[in-house]
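Researcher: Sequence of Cytochrome P450 monooxygenase follows. Predict its structure.
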Amino acid sequence: MSFPFIPTVALLALLLTLFYKYIIHPTFLSPLSRIPNAHWSSPISSLYILSHRLAQTDTPHIHHLHTLYGPIIRLAPSEISVNCVDGGLRTVYLRGMEKGNWYKNVFSNYGVEPMFAMSGHGEHSRRKRMVSGVYARSALSGSASLTRQTEILVKELRGRVRDEVAEDGKRGGQGIEFYDIFCAVTMDFVAGYIFGLKNGTKLLREEKEEGIQLFHDFKARQKYTFWSQECAALTRFLEKVGLKWLVVPSWVGEANVGLEDWLMGLVENARETRKVMDRDGLDKVAVEDVPTVYAQLEKALVKEKMKEDEARGVVEKEKKYEDVVGELKLDIASELLDHTLAGFDTSSITLTWLAWELSKPANATWQALLRAEISTLKGSLDAKAIDRLSILHAIVLETLRLHAAIPGQQPRITPEGYTTILGDPEIGTAYPNIPPGVRVQAHAYSLHRIPSVFPSPDSWLPERWLDPLSPSADPSDPSSYQLRSLHDPQKIEMLRHFWAFGSGGRMCVGSNLAILDMKATMVGLWGKFETEIVDDEGMVPNGGYMAEPLGVGTGGEKGIGGKYAVDGEGRKFLRLKVREVEG
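Model: Prediction complete. Tokens:
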């Protein structure tokens, strides 16, 4: 029995068409076919790179591929990684490629996109203008609220460390877990500036155990974002048929709701404080309790909303300011949840790696120099004075370079309407005619490890940011060290490739606050204490989007592999021995 001729021909034609579309064209004829492949299967399948992302090993692996194949590599049929400034960062990020759905699938809160997840440049720019002023360097250094908050939190940090030292003595000197402490202090800093100190968190002193549980649950859920970001259609299908639990445990959704409920409480408290300020005057609220970011965002969003309503002719004459605030409650909460979580998470990761490097025996000289430099402040916590400390700044920059909190991909989509050229023609790595709809990304991890820009890229060397010592200089005197000039050719190249906070219009809006609270924490800690490593077995970096230390679990298992109970004795990241010093 033979098949009818016409259906057979039709089937053959269909198979040939599919073979051409999914095998021949992407492998040999696509503009991307000239780009070096990450794997032999990259032109026809995403499975290779997806397997690394699922295992959270993609960031160092892609860096390895760049060292083998150059600054432009093809990861998947319609996906490219770039590792250069000219023809890379400048093209992808400074010329305004859109973000796509990768961000909003995970970073939306309450069903509302915050600024970070917005794909369109227009809406992103409008939102950024609303809040960028309160995060500007000049605003932060001149903020009476932030100055007072810093004084209070540094005092609380020192008190927490002294308490931990006493407890550690009772345990026989097992060391103090510092990742949790850094999570607490950075959360208190960020939440204090956003919502006001009394409305924010009190994790350093009053809510220690609650804070540890919050941090652990927050981190444990992060690895499951893979499914919504990289396999969005599959995840939606599984959710529709009630099988999402096969890839994402049900507690992850519960944890997300819990975080949203927790943050909404901070928003409501900040709103009440703002009402007091409006009704009774600013002097009725302690300076440290002013909800700086909340008040600015609320005011700007209400103004925009009322203007939009008026333009549409739908303004209700009797609608009051508080009514509009109520309508915008989810927009406000979504934006501030993103600011809060991103602010504490990245800064705490950076400080943990910084403490690890600074507490190594090989870096004892740098710790001593830092302490001597901090002593020149004579107890002052003035932001401008702290910012002038060269050694401190070099240590922060070098830690952000080697241990960027977000070393992973920052994807963008090539624009509609024209093709794109990636790579640098001057060094023979240009690839023209990249079509619209291709996913392109850079990685801070790789940019920060280009040997021609950062010699000995895998070594922690704060001196690379400082002028060489003169022959007559005293190497033990912190005043002998000065930051390289902005006109120094090497520093120009390093800053061009420095990507800890991104670049372009979508650069991290809170970078100045992050730098300030990290520096204040360093002054608070190493201005009073010496640290040395007791146990750093858990200091193995996550190889995915973020670079938090994976830690060692209660039973010795490595990695944050699910929801787990607080166990201060069992879970280890970085345990330090601490000794208080004079000064």
